[in-house]
Amino acid sequence: RAARGGFADARRAGEAEDGRGLGEAGGRGEHGAAREGLKKDQSGMREVLQMTGALVRRETRAVPVGNVYVGGNNPVVVQSMINEDTLDIDGSVAAIRRLHEAGCEIVRVTVPSMAHAFAMQYIKEKLRSTYQDVPLVADVHHNGMKIALEVANHVDKVRINPGLYVFEKPDPNRTEYTKEEFEAAKNKLKATLTPLIEKLRDQNKALRIGVNHGSLSERMLFTYGDTPEGMAESALECIRVCRELNFHNLIISMKASKVMVMLAAYRLLAKRMDAEGMDYPLHLGVTEAGDGEYGRIKSTLGIGTLLAEGLGDTIRVSLTEDPVKEIPVCYGILQGLGLRRTMVEYVACPSCGRTLFNLEEVLHNVREATKHMPGLSIAVMGCIVNGPGEMADADYGYVGKTPGKISLYRGRSEVRTVPESEGVEQLVALLKEDGVWVEPEEAKNLNPATASAGVPVPAVASK
Fold it and tell me: Do 117 and 111 touch, CB atoms closer than 8 A?
């Protein structure tokens, strides 16, 4: 693609592949037509698109969060959360900016008190005056109606936890919840939610109903147990209140620290919402995933599995590390599934006895020379036995041909054979000949959230 039409065409092709389309809220694009045209195979068990490896995303409405849309045909949005106390205005602004510059498209902050809620006005103002208007989400927890009503004036989305938003004092002597008690608590939740819903609705802002496995309300625990069903019911109860008040800027999350619980909860919620005609986007995450390699693996298992099933419109990888380190993991998950293209895709064989050069060293050298051009796909293959076939989807290829010689490919076509010692230099020369090369200094101006190699784009996602 890149060789034929430059990276502008490559970018447009990539956007078509990842479902990008920033149209009207609730738009369905081509996904609806694709679903309607699905056929079964002879066993009647699998759909044609599934057999071809295509990823079909669940149809959702587009929900505005500041100048970013979540859901619809838009790319899966990356978000994270700062660690700073939001009473520290300067520190919070600096942390939000660092995350946004790293590619985070929506930033969440914690708002535990009225003082923190008022502080958000100054954080927003300072971002606008010194940087840009970054989409912000306020996290409101315990008994937070007054806090939520104030902070809704200053942020783009409010996140509540249904299990904590309305205070229910646990009764150590309780053995059950009667139907009357359950309904009374449900009505209290509705009365407490209504003012916030009306305020967000009137300002065209968003609400995340963020259910956590570890903080279900007492009545949900008594009625459904500590289960994915209890999580789904907790979310649905809030969703129905919003629908009664004609408020639909909703995003839903069902987080758990156990991957299998998280998977079951999201799948159940999606099934229940679809059955009731609810097309609200899903925010995916494995909460308290930890740190290091295991935290990344755990998050990838949960988030990646659901995305591969077509579920999920925005993601956050929760690591016990600097939040900036979460962003590359998010983009790695999305790129691995073909949902976003924010870095160079390298295809490389694991090496074997047929390999004609030091594959690990050459891959490193190719990466260092080209890693600043996101959107490009380059294959480095050790020999011609399987190399040309296995690298067929790459834009360019570097393949061992004979001892001391390598072949350069443009797509599936061999372009030239050169000495191995000149391989990387000649690859760069080929990129320049094709008009797709970008100098490293120029690439520094590209935002990783929206960049496609060689095409400077605005740092802020468009509507």
Answer: yes
In which residue are the tokens 């895709």 written? 345
405-410/206-212 β-pairing? unpaired
**Residue holding tokens 């927890």?**
141
Q: What is the DSSP string of 253-302?
A: EEEBSSHHHHHHHHHHHHHHHHHTT----EEE-BTT--SHHHHHHHHHHH
Local structure of 380: helix, strand or coil = strand
- Name the packing angle between helices 89-101 and 114-130 (round to 10°): 50
Q: Give the residue among 186, 345, 208 at the shortest CA–CA distance from 283.
A: 208
DSSP string covering 191-202, please? Answer: HHHHHHHHHHHH
CA distance 337 to 341: 10
**Tokens representing residue 105 in the block:** 């498209």
Contact between 335 and 342 under an 8 Å Cβ cutoff? The reply is: yes
Looking at residue 452, the DSSP 8-state letter turns out to be: B
Whether 156 and 211 have beta carbons less than 8 Å apart is answered as no
Query: Do 458 and 450 contact (CB within 8 A), yes or no?
Result: yes
The answer to whether 213 and 262 have CB atoms below 8 angstroms apart is yes
Locate 95 and state its tokens. Answer: 């942390």
> Closest by alpha carbon to 447, among 436, 433, 460?
460
Reading the chain (463 residues) residue by residue, the pLDDT tens digits are: 333 333 333 333 343 333 333 433 333 333 343 334 333 333 343 354 455 667 889 999 999 999 999 999 999 999 999 999 999 999 999 999 999 999 999 999 999 999 999 999 999 999 999 999 999 999 998 778 899 999 999 999 999 999 888 877 777 888 888 888 889 889 999 999 999 999 999 999 999 999 999 889 888 988 898 999 999 999 999 999 999 999 999 999 999 999 999 999 999 999 999 999 999 999 999 988 888 899 999 999 999 999 999 999 999 999 999 999 999 999 999 999 989 988 899 998 887 777 777 889 999 999 999 999 988 999 998 877 777 777 878 999 999 888 899 999 999 899 999 999 999 999 999 999 999 999 988 877 766 665 543 323 223 233 2
Question: What whole-number distance in Å separates Cα of residue 21 and Cα of residue 18?
Answer: 9
The residue whose two tokens read 């309607």 is 36
Q: Taking a C-beta distance cutoff of 8 angstroms, is the pair 342, 451 a contact? A: yes
Q: Going by C-beta distance under 8 Å and a sequence separation of 6 or more, which residues neighbour residue 319? A: 289, 290, 291, 295, 296, 299, 325, 326, 329
